[in-house]
């Protein structure tokens, strides 16, 4: 089965030692891939450190999976370079790259036991049998599968099968493990559980992981850094906190948290703040200081969870609560403001949430307000 080639390097290790990555694990420079007139990946560049968990995040067609496939060797780039541990692997076949791969489909050998599936890469590498047994046992224990070695894949749940697939990819400690939406086929509760387990394993073993997902929450939970992709381009490559709190483009602000956007212009600057006069309400919105010229038309972005509802007249605008939906720990409210064309989305703790029909003032901490020059002016 060719799908397994990527996790079975052709280099045999006679002494049973496992390779470990130090320093810079992977470097991608100006990677480009086209299909006819369609640019799937456009000059993507990044450096990933050893032991780092990096996620490619984006909607379908953003280029995230194509980038992963080029790193794995399943897809040949038109131009650019891929270096792993200082070695140029741009044109190497997948089986010669020595990278681990975990698919959404588990791709386990149905006729083999769990232990045999996990041992498969080591068997092909010529690792001694005693060493194989030790490593397989250790790896299954790390994944919480110590008592499952003798079972066949059909005797396991979906979550257990995905753990086996992960064990098979990490049993020989490849320099980089690639994961292509590995939790996509599981229900939410199990996905949440496995996210925690994958992150714990990655940190315990110091693994370098590149992960692909379209799920924003999953990316925020797992990642040290996230590459947000759109139309083949990397919009921003940063830490989860920086992406969420300091997005560099309106797309990132909206994609990571469904931000509220308000139009206005920069009225003036103080030593610490930028004051924005809003078009729709005429209110004055205070933001942390941005380097935008006075008079610049802008879009102000604020995440729903960073807005608060207070007494009418408080804050930068007043509106009427149109919807208030209880979702457990939160109330999600929609507040209609101005002439009625703008609906602000708020997320407030349950028990303190406004009710439909109530008039409220909307406030925001200046540190939570991001400003972007209106693209129509560029």
Quick overview of this protein structure:
This protein has 378 residues and is an alpha+beta fold. It is 23% helix and 34% strand.
Describe this structure in words.
α2 crosses α3 and α2 runs parallel beside α4. The N terminus is likely disordered. With 378 residues, the protein is of the alpha+beta class. 23% of the residues lie in helices and 34% in strands. The protein has 2 domains: 244 residues, P-loop containing nucleotide triphosphate hydrolases (Rossmann fold, 3-Layer(aba) Sandwich); 119 residues, Beta Barrel (OB fold (Dihydrolipoamide Acetyltransferase, E2P)), CATH 2.40.50. The strands form 4 sheets. Strands 6-7-8-3-9-10 form a 6-stranded mixed sheet, with helices on both faces. InterPro entries: AAA+_ATPase (IPR003593), ABC_SmlMolc_Importer (IPR050093), ABC_transporter-like_ATP-bd (IPR003439), ABC_transporter-like_CS (IPR017871), Mo/tungstate-bd_C_term_dom (IPR008995), P-loop_NTPase (IPR027417), Transp-assoc_OB_typ2 (IPR013611). Keywords: ATP-binding, Nucleotide-binding, Transport.
């Amino acid at each position: 089965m060719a799908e397994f080639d990527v996790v079975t390097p052709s280099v045999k290790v006679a002494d049973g030692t496992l390779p470990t990555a130090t320093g810079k694990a992977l470097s991608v420079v100006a990677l480009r891939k086209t299909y006819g007139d369609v640019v799937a990946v456009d000059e993507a560049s990044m450096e990933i450190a050893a032991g780092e968990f990096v996620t490619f995040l984006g909607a379908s067609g953003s280029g995230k999976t194509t980038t992963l496939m080029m790193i794995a060797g399943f897809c040949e780039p038109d131009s650019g370079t891929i270096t792993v541990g200082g070695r140029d692997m741009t044109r190497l076949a997948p089986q010669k790259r020595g990278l681990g791969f975990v698919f959404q489909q588990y791709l386990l050998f149905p006729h083999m036991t769990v232990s045999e599936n996990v041992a498969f890469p080591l068997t092909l590498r010529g690792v001694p049998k005693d060493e194989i047994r030790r490593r397989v046992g250790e790896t299954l224990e790390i994944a919480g599968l110590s008592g499952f070695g003798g079972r066949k894949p059909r005797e396991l749940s979906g979550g257990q099968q995905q753990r086996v697939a992960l064990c098979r990819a990490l049993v020989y400690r490849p320099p980089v493990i690639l994961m292509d939406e590995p939790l996509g086929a599981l229900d939410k509760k199990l996905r949440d559980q496995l996210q925690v387990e994958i992150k714990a394993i990655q940190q315990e073993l110091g693994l370098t992981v590149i992960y692909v997902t379209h799920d924003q929450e999953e990316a925020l939970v797992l990642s040290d850094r996230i590459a947000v992709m759109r139309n083949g381009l990397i919009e921003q490559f940063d830490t989860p906190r920086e992406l969420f709190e300091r997005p560099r483009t309106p797309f990132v602000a909206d994609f990571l948290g469904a931000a509220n956007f308000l139009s206005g212009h920069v009225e003036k600057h103080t030593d610490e703040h930028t004051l924005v006069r809003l078009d729709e309400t005429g209110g004055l919105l205070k933001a942390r200081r941005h380097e935008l010229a006075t008079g610049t038309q802008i879009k102000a972005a604020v995440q729903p969870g960073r807005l608060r509802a207070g007494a009418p007249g408080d804050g930068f605008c007043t509106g009427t609560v149109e919807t208030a939906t209880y979702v457990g720990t939160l109330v999600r409210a929609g507040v209609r403001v101005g002439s009625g064309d703008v609906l602000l989305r708020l997320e407030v703790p349950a028990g303190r949430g406004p009710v439909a029909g109530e008039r409220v003032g909307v406030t925001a901490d200046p540190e939570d307000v991001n400003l972007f020059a209106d693209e129509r002016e560029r």
